[in-house]
Structure formats: C-alpha cells, structure tokens
Amino acid sequence: MQVNTDFILKKIVRNDYCAFGAPMPGRTFSSPSYRYGFNGKEKDNEINGTGNDYDFDARIYDSRLGRWLSIDKHSRRYPSESNYIFVSNNPIIYLDADGNDKVYFDCEGNETSRIESKIEFITYVQVAQNVTYDANGTIHSIPVYEVAPMPGVIDGKEDPKYQKLDYQIAASTFI
Q: What is the pLDDT of residues 100-144, one digit of tens each?
C-alpha cells in the first residue's frame, strides 16, 4: 500500500461560538482570506471590528449583542417583539437564514414552521358622546367609538418607514 504525502493540510477556519454567534475568545481561528463566520454568513469587519458583524443579506447582525443593526422590515408580523432582536431571543430553537423570517427546524434539519404573527391591530376613533342620567340625577358620559379604516399601502411604499404612522393617519382622516 502506497501512502500519498504530497499535500499540505491548511487550517483555514476553526470557530466556537456563543449562543448568539459571538466568537468565543481564545477558541477562534480564521485565515485572513476566509470571509465567512456564524451561520456561514459573510463577516462585515468594517463596522464593529473583526468577527462581530455578519451580513445576512436583508440586514447586518451584531453577534455580540444578539441584535440586528436595522429595523425588521416585517416588524408588523411581530408586534410584541423589538424590531432588533434576533430569532425571538431563542437561537437554539430558531434560525434566521437571511434576516427576514424566523424558521423552526426539527432535529433532522427539516423546516417545520415559520413564525408569523396573526395579531391584527384596529384603530377606533371616538365619534360621539352619549350622556345619560341615573335615578339620582348623576350625569354619565359614555363615549361612542367606530372602527377607522386603515389607509391602503401605496405601491412602491411598502417599507415600514412609510407606514409607521398608519394608525394616526387612520384616526385623523376618519373624522
């Protein structure tokens, strides 16, 4: 049996990560030519130093904080969460492959569900005041509310920065 010894093994990368993807001190090695890190995403070393930020296509992620550096464009799906948190603060259960959706995978690596909020917000506007008197002559004022329709999303203006005041717009234009 002949053994081929004409190759040299080059260690390009070895990383151990904390739960949110921050490199563990003293347990990380990466060749300067290797640009990828946590979740196979490209490192963005220009903002916060080497190995701290990753480009997830839709957003930049800071692994030291476990937070995105920009607002989630799908923030309306998750009204109970901060616009900046990563995978609902649960990186063991969920994966966010591109900065858009939180995805749950089973132990075989199959996608089983995507997190999408079913909460719907409705804007009510006070349109009248009903005044009644009880047997003692005490005045009771009861407000009357109606649902204010939400303004439609303008084509090309779907970004949340244009829609952040929808509820105030609905309330002010309804009356």
A: 777 887 777 777 777 654 555 566 777 888 888 888 988 888 888
Contact of 103 with 88, CB cutoff 8 Å = no
Task: Compute, in degrees rounded to 10, the torsion defined by CA atoms 11, 16, 21, 24.
Answer: -110
CA dist., res. 60 & res. 64, Å (int): 12
In sequence order, what E strands does the chain have?
A: 13-17, 23-30, 42-43, 53-55, 60-62, 67-68, 94-95, 103-105, 111-114, 123-133, 139-148
Q: How far is CA 104 from CA 31, 93, 109, in A?
A: 32, 6, 9
The model's pLDDT over 52-87, given as tens digits with 9 standing for 90+, comes to 888 888 888 898 888 888 888 777 777 778 888 888
Instruction: Round to whole Å and give the CA distance between 175 and 119.
Output: 25
